[in-house]
Amino acid sequence: MLAIDVGNSNWVLGLYSGNELQKVLRLNSGALVNEDQIRKVFSELLGEPILRDLDDQSLPITLSSVVQGTTRLLRKTFPHAQVIDSTWPFSFQIATDQPEQTGVDRLVNAHAAIELIQAEIRSSRSRPKPIILVDAGTATTFCAVTSTGVFLGGAIAPGLGISAEALFSMAPALPRVSFELPDATIGMSTSAALQSGILQGYACLVDGMIGRFRTELKNRGEPGMADVFITGGFSRLLAKTCEQPMRVEPDLTLKGIHSLFVRQETQA
């Protein structure tokens, strides 16, 4: 099956054979604005045989999308595509005020993390713990799931990339810098100071939110220290920069889409 994670800036495609993720492709969403472009890019990157399988509906497609216009375009291109929403068979209860307005990518990530943790619990016979999920993309989202499998909600912050872009746009005299961790927090040049402020400052945001989530979960009576998962385009960079321990799962959303596809097919 083909799993597609449609974000605000990128699409991530995951081609599965059975339960094995065989290929992962990241595409800039700005280049995919009509059916012809989608078909052309899919043919070039996935191959003409895969495109034929999509056309004759022998290869299933399942989407997690936060962009409604793109969802409509993909369903027009491939009418058999399934779109995950809050009514799908997730591995948890949704306790947010309006589940239908909760970002489906956040729900998919939570489902994937719970599936991974449950597999480890079965093998080690350890006790369930709460989960904190960080998705570092265009926005950075933080989500909390209780040890008993209740999705509580979370927080949404401007992403690392757009935060830096806003700074450079509003302060044109500042030089644009690469996202590289400086040698010291106290920058001895403007470029080093920017890298420190952008990267280490953002890491403090992530560390601080994780700490506050852990405190609130503890106050709710949750057992143990919450396991933290981080995914998204900036996940590896932030995991190296942050002080809080966290588990990097760059393909978490694709794993969640695939797992939900299997569940949906099984229950159909």
Sequence-ordered SSE layout with sheet pairings:
Layout: E1 2-6, E2 10-17, E3 20-28, H1 35-46, H2 48-55, E4 61-65, H3 68-77, E5 82-83, E6 93-94, H4 104-124, E7 131-136, E8 139-145, E9 150-158, H5 160-170, H6 190-219, E10 227-231, H7 235-241, E11 247-248, H8 252-267
Parallel strand pairs: 1-4, 4-5, 6-9, 7-10, 10-11
Antiparallel strand pairs: 1-2, 2-3, 7-8, 8-9
Helix pairs in contact: 1-2, 4-8
Q: What does this molecule look like?
A:
The structure is a single chain. With 268 residues, the protein is an alpha/beta fold. The protein has 2 domains: 2-83, ATPase, nucleotide binding domain (Nucleotidyltransferase, domain 5, 2-Layer Sandwich), CATH 3.30.420.40; 93-256, ATPase, nucleotide binding domain (Nucleotidyltransferase, domain 5). The chain is 43% helix and 22% strand. It contains 8 helices and 11 strands. The protein has a 6-stranded mixed β-sheet with strand order 6-9-8-7-10-11, with helices on both faces. α7 (235-241) links the parallel β10 (227-231) and β11. α4 (104-124) crosses α8 (252-267).
Task: Please outline what is shown here.
The protein has eight helices and eleven strands. The chain is an alpha/beta fold and 268 residues long.
Instruction: Note the total helix count.
Output: 8
Total number of domains: 2
Q: Could you list the spans in which at least 5 consecutive residues all have pLDDT below 50? A: none
CATH fold category name of the largest domain: Nucleotidyltransferase, domain 5
Which range best describes the helical content: under 10%, 10-25%, 25-40%, 40-55%, 55-70% or over 70%? 40-55%
CA radius of gyration is 20 Å
**For the terminal residues, how far apart are their CA atoms?**
17 Å
CATH superfamily of the largest domain: ATPase, nucleotide binding domain
Silhouette: globular
Strand order of the largest sheet: 6-9-8-7-10-11
Structural class: alpha/beta
How many strand units? 11
CATH level 1 class label of the largest domain? Alpha Beta
Oligomer: single chain
Described by strand count, sense and barrel closure, the largest sheet is: 6 strands, mixed
What is the element string, with H for helices and E for strands?
Answer: EEEHHEHEEHEEEHHEHEH
